[in-house]
Amino acid sequence: MPRTMVINVAGLGESLIAEIPSLVALAGRGVRLGLEPVLPAVTCPMQATLTTGEPPARHGIIANGLYLYDTAEVRFWEQSAHLVNAPRVWELPLQAGKKKAPPKVAMLFWQQSLYGSADIVISPKPIHGPGDQLIQDCYSKPGDLYARLAAGESSLEPGKPRGPFNLMHYWGPMVNIGSSRWIADASIAVWRNEKPDLMLTYLPHLDYSGHRAGPDTDPHKAAARELEPLLAALIQAAEADGGRAIVLSEYSFVPVKRQVAINLALREAGLLCLREVAGAEYLYPGDSRAFAMVDNQIAHIYMPQTRDLDADTRRVKHLLEKLDGVGEVLDAEGKKARSLDHVRAGELVALAAPDAHFVYYWWLDEAKAPPFARTVDIHSKPGFDPAELLIDMAKRCIPLTAQGIRGSHGLVPESGAGWGVYLDSHPPKALAGRKSLRATEVAHLLV
């Protein structure tokens, strides 16, 4: 089997491939398939599925965030590989009778990669100092790898320094192609110098225009064209060594036009626990009879202080089913049918209407919104906040509304809207004649 480079292009949809000549060429000499995501079609659950072959009910990554019962905290973007409750495909026992060393694996900017079995890891991990101090840094394995990459010569522009990774270009209102360029540059260096058998790398660029502008828009297509030199260089590097190039996406974007604040509805029903501190209202999940951890088009509803779980579950399900912008509410039976019945999942899981997405907001008066609401603070908010990609220029801060967001993802409609793509330069014979692929099938194709 040739060495394999897997390039995860966040938000890449079928219609965008025509904007990227290197992908058109790759599809011409290999395969090009639709990729059916798991529910929810968001980054962490999908990347866990792509590397384990299991749905969230088995690997336990039920959203980009987790509610930790022991500490009564919502934590988004936790990076430990130990959170994945199923083995990665390269960790599985080799087939009987085959004497072969396990593959050398590199994970660059993939979620839940720290402290795991991958031989090479790079992931953003800034250090938070006193006050608002933020020291930009990346975790790496081996420990000196990031420093070597930051001090090294660019793979994309020989003769120029690569420099350090800029976290401000990775998420927030200052995002741009720079984050994907640095990751692609570093990935080529790792591929050539460290020689992994399997390398997983991640280009986030389409996530920005996908949320801000939505699919099938000129800005989203322009962002796709910006990726061409990066993808061309990565694919060329893989194939120059006789390697295999796989380009895939976890989801694509669907247009949205309205936001839904589930926590506000739960507050009005008297189920949310809030406390006012220094004039701002803070949510206390562990004291709430019901609260929502929201993530794009999906929301997990937890009931830490329920007095009667069956009664509260019925009450909240009925409440949410009547809420404008909620398409479906999954109870225990519904979660099982969608392979989302893991102990980490909420007692209920709400799915947005196709043209809606969820926001975490709970305040009635914007003056009482907590200070972190107007900042890029992915660890304080009990939900994904796409408004962090926007900026209120008059106030120089994040707006307290996501009405400017035009694209989202998370649902898995049978129509194929919101599905990802899979392109493979060396497709196995089993893919001959296929038009689509399930996300749970991908892991075993990688090795």
Describe this structure in words.
This protein is α/β, with parallel strands linked by helices and 447 residues long. The chain folds into 2 domains: 4-254 and 412-446, Alkaline Phosphatase, subunit A (3-Layer(aba) Sandwich), CATH 3.40.720.10; 258-405, no CATH class. 25% of the residues lie in helices and 21% in strands. It is built from 12 helices and 23 strands. The chain has helices at residues 21-29, 43-52, 56-59, 145-151, 178-193, 205-212, 218-226, 228-240, 262-268, 309-321, 332-337, 439-446, and strands at 4-9, 31-36, 65-68, 73-76, 105-108, 120-124, 127-128, 134-135, 138-141, 198-203, 244-248, 254-255, 258-261, 274-277, 280-283, 291-295, 298-302, 326-330, 348-352, 356-359, 407-408, 420-424, 436-438. Strands 9-6-5-10-1-11-22-2-23 form a 9-stranded mixed beta sheet. A 4-stranded antiparallel beta sheet has the order 16-17-19-18. A hairpin with a 2-residue loop joins β16 (291-295) and β17. α2 (43-52) crosses α12 (439-446) and α6 packs antiparallel against α7. The chain is globular and about 60 Å long. The mean pLDDT is 96.
